[in-house]
Amino acid sequence: MTVAKALGHIRVLDLSRVLAGPWCSQNLADLGADVIKIERPGSGDDTRAWGPPYARDADGRDTSEAAYYLAANRGKRSVTVDIASAEGQQLIRELAAQSDVVLENYKVGQLKRYGLDYESLKAVKPDLVYCSITGFGQDGPYAHRAGYDFLIQGMGGLMSVTGERDDLPGGGPQKAGVALVDLMTGMYSTIAIQAALMHRDRSGEGQYIDMALLDVQVAMLANMGSNYLNSGKAPKRWGNAHPNIVPYQTFACSDGYIIVAAGNDGQYQKFVEAGGRADLATHERYASNPLRVQNRDELVPILAEMVKGKTRSEWIEQLEAVGVPCGPINDIGDVYQNPQVQARGLVTETPHPSAGKVKLVRSPMRLSGTPTDGGSAPPLLGQHTEEVLRELLGRSPEDIGALKGKGVL
């Protein structure tokens, strides 16, 4: 029995590369969309070369597929097209006419030179949904600047609230450990595209979506942005602590670190009672969260000394038993050994044309009626060029051979 896919009726022409755009189109592919990934002949997506590490074949030898590329491109079909050539541009226009969505992350105005901007493609597909992802958006004084995740984390305020406190050893700004702005821009773009498709289905109208990394970074400051807007005071770095909740941070046990996230007074009381310091639960300076925030500099060292008296496993067992949120700080290897991660089946092995099999992380989206699956492996460069041109554009083997001979494919 074939299981319906939520976006099984949608085709996406993906002109994006690196991470923000591919992350978006991978989400759409996970939901069942036919994603056609357009790549540069000969080299393809930049991330194909962002290794080591690479996928390995059955003999343990590196293939040409970088692990970075594998992380963001499952479930797609790869077609190589030189969009700088007139014949390549015509192929893109023809493919756009057969698609519901075009996704791109070129510099502002670059695709207009090729006749592949929204207005040009709208002429051949009036109800097209066209999503552009750039660093700073299509207008404003920074529109023509190149935008990279690291830069945006700094410019957009994330690094001002990430890292240890300036008055503590190691204090200073720190970027997130993954390209968080790229990933969140991909997620916001996924939502925007689906909203535009719903509007199209009701009205018959396509539309243009202007996504900017800086916009996303500012939006995702969340409570930190709200704290500033409502106080006029810029938040500072708190390391592994929380600006509004105490205790909500890491603590050193006798044999490692744990996180304690006491989100209310009841959880705080159970935490200190488990540590043999019930007196701290009713202390006049620590009994409520506002008091604990006000007096954190004197309370936290007391709590830190209390935590040192037990092992990590002892603390986790005791705190879980009384309902205090806590947990270990795992490295990535620990994550994939975690019984909950394993029970949820987050790692899949997918057949791959050169590596035999590759391990991928499955989509976290769980839909009961239209489930995602592991999808096909991230494609080899140009793996589906002939298939797509035959299937969608009716090109003959001779036509395709001629285009390859000219370097168009």
Automatic annotation (TrEMBL):
Keywords: Transferase. InterPro entries: CoA-transferase_III_domain, CoA-Trfase_fam_III, CoA-Trfase_III_dom3_sf, CoA-Trfase_III_dom_1_sf. This is CoA transferase. PANTHER family: SUCCINATE--HYDROXYMETHYLGLUTARATE COA-TRANSFERASE. It comes from Pseudoduganella aquatica. Transmembrane segments: none annotated. One of its GO terms (molecular function) is CoA-transferase activity.
